[in-house]
Amino acid sequence: MQSSNPKMSFKPVCIVCNSFSWLELPSPHQSRSVRSDGAILNQPLLKAQCGECGLVQSTSVPDTKTLATLYTENYDIYNNRPASEQFVASRYEALARAFTLAVAPFYPKKVLEVGCGNGATLEAVQSLWKDAECIGVEPVITAVQAAQSNGINVVQGMIGVDVPEMIAKQKYDVIYTVHVIEHTQDPVAFLHDLKEMLSPEGRLLISCPNASIPNLEIMRSDHNFSMLPYHLDKLTRKAGLIPLLSSNCPGGAENMDYEHNQLLVCRLPERSSDEIKISESLYLPNELNDINRQKLFDARKKYFLDFGKLDENLQSQLSGFERLYCFGSGGWACILAGYAPYIWNKVQACIIDGGSDQTIHGKDILPYEKLKDLNPDGIIVATNPVIQPMIAERLNKNGFKAIRWDNIICV
Q1: C-alpha 327: how far from chain center
Q2: How far apart are CA 262 and CA 258, in angstroms?
Q3: Positions of E strands within 131-237
Q4: Whether residue 334 has pLDDT greater than 80
Q5: Measured between alpha carbons, how far is 88 from 85 in angstroms, rounded to an integer?
Q6: For residue 235, what pLDDT is reported?
Q7: Bigger pLDDT: 316 or 106?
Q8: Can you say how many angstroms the Cα of residue 276 is from the centroid of all Cα atoms in its chain?
Q9: Neighbours of 407 (CB within 10 A)
Q10: Which of 2, 14, 23, 344 has the smallest count of CB within 10 Å of its CB?
Q11: How far apart are CA 90 and CA 85, in angstroms?
Q12: Among 67, 76, 220, which residue's Cα sits nearest to residue 145?
């Protein structure tokens, strides 16, 4: 097994196995990184893989106060990706179906979503559990306002920081959380807080990225942890919960990244034998042996290095292009802006169906119908690499030159 990188001056303890042995991952840019809400930070992405269990962790996880300020005042996953919500609407319905099926035939009376954003998933869950009392708690003030304006039952608050009494004093038959645990400062403490609000027969559902295959989530600067199913299982047991079901889970638009997301269903311990089940999980599984941990590290390292080469590789493709436009205004456009700044500076504007009156990282967003009038030299496709061939085919059929980069960044 490769030894820890000696350059790491600070070595945090692994939250899963308590190791201090780390393998540093190469930063994809020396001075930039991208948050999950699309914001570009003037600091490099600093992450490392635990040399013992394979968990990926930020080398300096922010404290709770810093995270509370970020997710209350600065984080804006909806407004920083203009017009992108229309492309992920199917995700909410798919998540709701996955959650209800995961606990069937159990039918809850009280349901809590933690970190519910603008309430879109909560609304979809309520449509399936029509007779249940569903409520959400969310730290981002603008997201809470958006949910409330649409009549969705959401209150402002943050687990572990400031939970409204109307939430904290209740017991819930189902508590679920979608892509929240990887943002926390202490996942075990977070899970323990949720456990305290669970009814005796209740179910806790955790949906989060699955780091078994390197994918975009590992590049997010605010994803403090990237977990395999094994890691999530062990963390829930550390919090005193009993895992019942582990599976893949719907993720982004049209469920294209199903294998990159996981769902774990847990319950409270019921009897003394459950305590044995909790302690039995503390052994490292055979699939995380030295060889496979090294394979994980090598694959992740390549993924980071591929992002590091993105700007340079695209420059060679776009030499001489003067009128360059970008198709897309969502998360992948933010990734392009963050990790390929030279190319992004060449982009004249972004193009999407319907256009938008907003901007993205300094670029206007124009309707697709205007492309012919713009007479572009080329259009760089800033979408999920999985669908770049389809988008490129459309552009080429309409007489435009499409530039793909799914051969550089593979997911």
Answers
A1: 22
A2: 8
A3: 133-138, 154-156, 172-178, 198-209, 225-226
A4: yes
A5: 5
A6: 96
A7: 106
A8: 33
A9: 10
A10: 2
A11: 10
A12: 76
The answer to whether residue 5 scores a pLDDT higher than 50 is no
3-state helix, strand, coil in the chain (%, to 5): 40, 20, 40
| 372 in Cβ contact with 361 (< 8 Å) | no
Q: Two tokens at 130? A: 């029509």
Give the model's pLDDT for residue 91.
84
Mode of pairing for the β-strands spanning 40-41 and 33-34: antiparallel
**Cα→Cα distances 158→117, 144, 161, 327, 403, Å:** 12, 12, 5, 36, 42
Alpha helices in 227-357 (DSSP H): 229-238, 272-280, 290-308, 310-317, 331-339, 341-346
Q: What's 104's DSSP letter?
A: T
Handedness of CA 314, 334, 206, 187 (dihedral sign): positive
Find the helix or strand (DSSP H, E) in which 57 lies.
strand 56-58
The residue whose two tokens read 């993924």 is: 303
270 pLDDT higher than 70: yes
Separation in Å, CA 3 to CA 9, 11, 18, 51, 294? 15, 13, 16, 7, 11
Q: Is residue 68 pLDDT above 50, yes or no?
A: yes
